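Pair request: fold both.
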Amino acid sequence: MEVKVFDNDVEKALKILKNKLSKSGLFKELKVRRAYEKPSVKRKRKAIEARRRFAKVQRRRSS
């Protein structure tokens, strides 16, 4: 991932980098990988996430 710094504006470049990293899901993955997650817990978490995504799509379609 690459972010260019213009006019020595490091703050803006850092903000852009953080935005790109969050959109790519890197922060979320790092949070998950901090500690070992049992397979059963992982399956449960993924199922909950899938339900949330599905509900979100349904809300958008009904609006």
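--- second member of the pair ---
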Amino acid sequence: MDGPRRAALTLSGAALARAALAGAAALDARRAGVPWRRMNFAGRPVTLLGGPALAASATATAVLGAPAGTRTAAAVVGAVSGLVGGYDDLA
């Protein structure tokens, strides 16, 4: 991968991560975010929505950066790992 493509992929990944975290924050502010809220060890409220949001953005970035023949595999691996992580958070 050449330098300009790598830089574009890095910037795209950062933008996707920011957008995903903004979406997670918006969802957390609504009633739909309630199942994702917990109390941490210090008794402060936290949200677990950041994990699935970043898993989605990392998957999208991996698909964008993957060679042509491996994009589907990158999408499947990223999606499955994100779903398993989300299931673990909610279970």
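Observation on the second member. The mean pLDDT is 94.
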